[in-house]
């Protein structure tokens, strides 16, 4: 998932593990939106495949603790409501 809510260099991957927290990086909404969850399966294998597909000259940084921000989990919650698709963020 690519989102305008996270931009960094070099290429970075995050939110690969199950239980990686969501980031509630928004404000002014009802409390219920800050209590929403979006569980998803482990995406470690997907992250490894993505990193391996990059040229050796292109470093890939993996952010193990960076959560999944609302630019990703809000549309995913609608598109894949069962949370059965591995998800990782790319910047």
Secondary structure elements and their pairing?
Layout: E1 11-14, E2 22-23, H1 44-52, E3 60-63, E4 68-69, H2 70-79, E5 89-90
Can I get a quick summary?
The protein has 91 residues and is of the alpha/beta class. It contains 2 helices and 5 strands, in the order ββαββαβ.
Q: How would you describe this structure in keywords?
A:
single chain, 91 residues, alpha/beta, 3-stranded mixed β-sheet, two-stranded parallel ribbon, 2 helices, globular
Commentary on this structure:
The protein has helices spanning 44-52, 70-79; strands spanning 11-14, 22-23, 60-63, 68-69, 89-90. It has 91 residues and is α/β, with parallel strands linked by helices. The chain is globular, with a radius of gyration of 14 Å. The model has no long low-confidence stretch (mean pLDDT 84).
Number of strands: 5
Rounded radius of gyration (Å): 14 Å
**Beta-strand fraction estimate:** 15-25%
- Note the total helix count: 2
Alpha-carbon distance between the two ends: 9 Å
Uncertain spans, ≥5 residues at pLDDT below 50? none
Main sheet properties: 3 strands, mixed
- What global shape is seen? globular
Q: Write down the oligomeric state.
A: single chain
Give the helices and strands as they follow along the chain.
EEHEEHE
Proportion of helical residues: 10-25%
Mean pLDDT: 84
Structural class: alpha/beta
Major sheet: arrangement of strands: 3-1-5
């Amino acid at each position: 998932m690519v989102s305008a809510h996270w931009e960094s260099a070099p290429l970075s991957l995050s939110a690969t593990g199950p239980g990686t927290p969501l980031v509630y990086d928004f404000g002014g909404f009802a409390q219920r939106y800050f209590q929403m969850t979006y569980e998803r399966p482990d995406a470690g294998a997907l992250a490894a495949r993505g990193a391996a597909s990059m040229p050796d000259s292109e470093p890939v940084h993996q952010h193990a603790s960076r959560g999944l921000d609302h630019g990703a989990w809000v549309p995913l919650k609608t598109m894949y409501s069962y949370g059965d698709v591995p998800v990782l963020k790319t910047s």
